[in-house]
Amino acid sequence: MKAVYPGSFDPLTNGHLDIIRRAAKSFEHLFVVVFDNSAKKCLFSVEERIAMISEAVSDIPNVTVDSSSGLLVEYAKKRGVGVIVKGLRAVSDFDYEFKMALMNKKLAPELETFFMMTSLKYLYLSSSLVKEVASYGGCIRDLVPPTVEARLFNKLKEKSGDDI
Ligand code: ADP
Q: pLDDT tens-digit profile of 7-17?
C-alpha cells in the first residue's frame, strides 16, 4: 500500500523526519508532499522546502518528495495512494486532525487516515517553535537536520537584511 504524508514543512524538523522514517518502514511507498494551499504564511518557498526534505531523506529508497496545491484527496487519487499519514503530538493536534480526517473520509471514503504518535523527544517540537528559537539566535541543533539548520539561519539573515 502506498501512503502520503502531507504538511507545510516550513521547515522540516526532526519530528517530521521521525514520522517519515517510521512510515517508510510501514508502507510500500511514501509520498512526502509539501502543500501550499494552507492559510499559513511560509518562510521558505515550496522549492526550498522540497530541497530540504530531499536532502534529509536521500538515504530512504521508497520515499518521493513532491508538492501540490490542490485537494489532498485528489493528489492521493492521482498517485494511487490508499493511506494518509498524519503525525500527532499533543491534544492540540487532535481536534484539527480529527476534523480533517472526517472531511477527507467524506470526500474520498476509500482513503484511510493513519495517525502516528510522535516520539517522546519530539512531543513539543514544531516548525514554528524552531523558527522562533532560531530568530533569537538559539540553538536548534538537535531539532532539525544540519542542512535545515544552516538554511534557516541563512534565511533569517537574508530576511533581516530585507527589513533594513
Ligand atoms: P507544523 O507546522 O505544525 O509543524 P506541518 O503542517 O508541517 O506542521 O506538519 C505536517 C504533519 O507532521 C502533521 O501531521 C503534524 O501533526 C506532523 N508533525 C509536525 N511536527 C511533529 C512532531 N514533532 N512529531 C510528530 N508529528 C509531527
A: 999 999 999 99
